[in-house]
Amino acid sequence: MGSNLISTIRPHAYHTVTWAYSRFRRGMSPRPGLRILMYHAIGTPLDGDAHCLYNMAFAVFRKQMQCLAAQYADSIVSLGIPPFRGDSMRIALTFDDGYRDNLTVAAPLLVELGIPFMVFVTTGAVAERKAGFLSPEEVRELAGLPGATIGSHTVSHPRLTDCDERGLKGELNSSKAFLEDLLGKEIDSISYPHGAVNRRVRDMAESAGYRIGATSRFDINKPLRDPLLLCRTDIWAGDDASIFEQKLRGDCDWYRWRHMDPAQLA
Description:
By secondary structure, this protein is of the alpha/beta class.
C-alpha cells in the first residue's frame, strides 16, 4: 500500500501530533460516520509483534468495553452495509486473525455488555488447528453467540496485492467456502490481511461474493464510502482510557495520512 512521510512515525511516538490535533478539535462533537474498531488478540502473545501493539491485556480491554457500554450504547452497531446517518457516529467492533481468546476471553464480556462484534478468521490456521487460534468447533461455538458474526481473513494471511490471479481467487474463494461449509450460512465479509488491498483485490472480492471489506486505513467512514473498502480505527495494546476516547472522538484520525486511501490505488 502506498504511503507518505507520516508512515515513518511509530505508533508510540505519534501522541504529540494527536495532542495538537485534539487541541484543534477541542469542543467538537465526535466525527460523524461509521467508526469500526480493530482489535487482534486479548491476552495471547503474538509472534512478530515487535512493538507489542496487538496483544491487549484483558484489564485494558474490559475498561474500553465498559466505556463503550456506558457512554456510547446507543451508537454501537453490528458491522453491516450502510446506509447510515451522516449526522452522528456509529461504532462497530471487529477482531482480526481468529485467536482463541476472542472466544474464551473477549466474547463473554461482550455478550454480557450486549456489544455485537465480528471476528475475521484466517481459515488455514483454523483447519490446521494452529496453537492459539480457534479450532473449527470453536468457530461454530463463537458464531452461535449473541451478537457474534464471522468473516473471512483469507486462508493463509498473505498480502493480497502481491498474489497473482490464481492465488488471489484461491485465498478469497477458499476461505469463504470453508467458513460457509463449517457454519452453514453465507459469509459476505472479509478483512484484508496487512491492509493490502487495491482496486484489483477489491473487485475480485466483490466477484467472490463479499459485500463488506475491511481495510487497515485509519479513519471513519462517511455514508458514501465503498462498503468493500471500509476504514477502521486500530486500537493498540497501550491505549489507555484517554487515548481510547481520543480515537473514538476522531482526534487521532490525522493518522490516516500515513497511507494512501486504497480507494485511490489501481
